[in-house]
Automatic annotation (TrEMBL):
Transmembrane stretches, start-end: none
InterPro entries found in the cross-reference section: ACP-like_sf, Adenylate-forming_Reductase, FAR_NAD-bd, NAD(P)-bd_dom_sf, PP-bd_ACP
PROSITE patterns, per the entry: CARRIER
Source species of the chain: Botryosphaeria parva (strain UCR-NP2) (Grapevine canker fungus)
Keyword tags: Phosphopantetheine, Phosphoprotein
Protein's recorded name: Putative nrps-like enzyme protein
Pfam families (UniProt xref): AMP-binding_C_3, NAD_binding_4, PP-binding
Record domain Carrier: where: 231-308
Amino acid sequence: MGSVETSCIPALAPQNALDWDYFDFHPDSGVVMEDAGEGLAELVIKPLGEDLWLQPVFSIFPGIPEWRTSDLFEQHPERPGLWRFRHRQDDVLVLNNGEKYDPIMFEKTVENHPLVKGALVVGHGKVQPGLIIEPDWTLIQESDDRSLLQQLWPVVEEANSPDATQARIRKDMILFASREKPFCRTAKHSIAKRATLELYTPEIEALYSADRVDEELSAQLGAVGKNPGRVEIRDLVRRALKLLLGNLPDGYSDDDDIFTLAVDSVLVLSFARALRHALQETSVALGSADVYANPTINTLSTVIHNKINGANEGPETQQIPREQVMAQLVEEYTANLPQANQNPLPPPDCHTVILTGSTGSLGSYILETLLETPNIAKVYCLNRSEQAEERQKKTFASRGTRSDLSRATFLHADLSQPRFNLPEPTYDTLTATATLFIHAAWAVDFNHPLTSFAPTHLAGIHHAAAFALRSAHRCRLAFISSIAAVARHPSPAPESLVPFTAAARQGYAESKLVAERILAATGAPVTILRCGQLAGPRAGCGAWGRQEWLPSLVVSAAAMGLVPARLGAADALEWLPVDTAARAVVECALGAAGAGVDVLHVVAPRATSWSALLPVVREHCRRARGVEVEVVGYDEWVEALKEVALTAEEVRLKPSVKMVKFYESMKVSFPALSTARAVACSKSLRESGPVDAALFEKWLKQWA
């Protein structure tokens, strides 16, 4: 293979004929494969010295330190050193949360429609992808955009991946190329993407405007007058939700939680915007926070009605104390559990482990650790996605992981359903063989209220407990909880069960504590592992996700020119590298024995401080971004964040604006945590040192 700039890049013939589509680049080619995330690597050519006849690119461009091809490859799953071309780097869309999205198959599917001449997915650095469709105007006589969209929407639905959430193209994020501005094309008649994007820059910016309201949605939704009644408001809310989702499931009730419908943060923004537009005559102030706090059609309708009529009009909604709600949920999800197996089989020499959430950040490192542990015979990974195994292979390849996946079996499961919605023979096999169940699957969303975690996650806890009670070996259930469950406990927070009042006042923290109490009430052998802040990995080439709160803070600080002197109320940081945390989880889960409940805090036993890392942040911003950042008080930084305009570009540059509520919650001091039991159980925790400047700088470079 080669290019105009590089000529032919020397490569060896693969030894196995079945690997005909893989490249084995010659050691003297200077090829270095640099991690590009998502299981892919970019082909980069490094100069080898003065003999440039093998590397003509350095003759054409003398003095350059390297040549980045922008070509992305995936490594052979079994033979390291063999690489298969996937696509160009500029073909990949990177959303503002760091999620990478390959649009090629999507575009090709849409282009298969006879009325479509070209399709181009847009949205690099944006909160969600959009789509520009170039119709084949020779086949279209007279047609407005709305009727044309109705004709083409089925093929867009077909192209939308069933495994995607944020990367799905929504109907209100589609625009049509005009007859007067056809797509730019190359001599080979393929779409010249960069030129076409430049041609349609004004239309794309309008598509992502913070103030844009989808005209079709608004026309179908309509508007209400100045004084709508409760029934009219409820019908409006229901219609808006139905229009945004395309439809509502049969039997969907006005009291059902909207977050059971795969409603994400992007759709919440659109939902609030659509309702605000329909209610504009009422001048009501309505935002995303109202949707999160009132996640059913009935509760949101009541709030809107009360806002319109004033706080003193209409019956006030009686607020049930949160501790009472938590207790009710524990009672609900411990009911109807099966009797525990009274004649458990003796434990076998080697463990069979069930793992949920294996494709998540912590879960993937837990799986890697399990596969490297000699006395693990088998790992069953339960995932909602049918593509979980493929995603796992890509994740391992991107980190250079050599773990043998032959001992792992991936099962398509739904934890919210009885018996995980598995075929009966499969479920029976698991109950007959499993000795350990590690439950790591949980949505990390600080906006959702407690009740939104019930239908999926608390139901999943109930079914996991039922599994453990039925299992032949009295399977131990290790649950990944969070230190947010003890955020309001007096110092030091103990490694034991705590009252409901201990949880932080947010749905995520409350759901974790409710789950702990459900498991404790079942009588199954349980290990509760309260994890603290998990950072990037200490070893290998994995990354600390750019969309998380700390990476977002650093990226935003560089764009704002301001960085906080402290991280909220705390200066001591008990950050634990995610690979160390995974080893600690496995050590603690395997090391537990007997009945009852073990509670352990998986946090760094030796803390670092933000003040020690602050010079590293400032130097990084100066060197990598050319920006001098001013150190300001935490309150001043949060207030400056609140002043950032919520335009698409500002959200891209300063992603922390999406988490203002979370940063405000950090103003409350966190208790010290007891760690004696976890440290005694885990060799990895005992040997773990604090995050130092060198390790932190490694992560910083990943966010630049």
